[in-house]
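Here's my example:
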Amino acid sequence: MSTSSDNGNRLTDLKQFGTDPGSLHADTYIPKNFPTNGPLIVVLHGSTQSAESYDHGSGWSALADECGIALLYPEQRKTNNPLSSFNWFKSGDTHRGGGEPLSIRHMIEQVVEDHGIDPARVFITGLSSGGAMTSVMLATYPEVFAGGAIIAGLPYRSADSLMQAMVRMKGVGGPSDSKLDALVRGASTFDGPWPTISVWHGGSDSTVDNANADSIVRQWQKIHEVEGPPTRVEKIDGFPRQVWCNADGREVIEEYIIEGMGHGTPIMAEGDEGLGEEGKYMLEVGISSTRHIAHFWNLT
């Protein structure tokens, strides 16, 4: 289990990376045992959080040490958003080739080049506004990512204004399934193979209603050609995991709805397998989303 003392200020400032139209900050964590051609995970914090606080709570850098994974933490500036939220609903920040998505794309290019990362093993995850921005990145730059994990987030382009965003967060309205599918297909000229999708949400989330989790699954089902009910449902650490497998039997979408959990990232800080530390939006529920997401991506 990681303690706060070995987790304090573990991240390093990424000083230079391409153009930065979204005016974001970036930190990295490269473990000492990072192998040449190793994988990279991009981690997007939630509102009111920093890269450092999210790393501390989620335990990603501790897992990075364990498994030899490079981490990139894009970080929002208060000048862009007073709550430090990624602007997942602003038109200038939801399209390929500009704004926050292009800033994050350039950070990834820089880190891949600097550290000899395997470009076929770049993944992205985020919580809340970071989860919604994960949806944006997966849709706008699908060729960059092997997989994405959206925690307490929203589907791509489910809102195009702050007012709409507030309504969508409550689980009201939102695009039809065919529109959700079309939005992703229209975000780039890519035609596959598409990133795998992991979706996590609290069953009692009153900030972002978990109807959004099901919408995210539906946004990607047709793209992955896995429409309809899950291939199987199993219990993991006491929680149901729904899995959709493609025609080749490969797991392409998974969904966890954590019963009784509010808004935040599910963690398990205790025990031999423990990661991270309980805190605001870092919820101790006895399952480590960090560890299970990395496992879904074959990184453990």
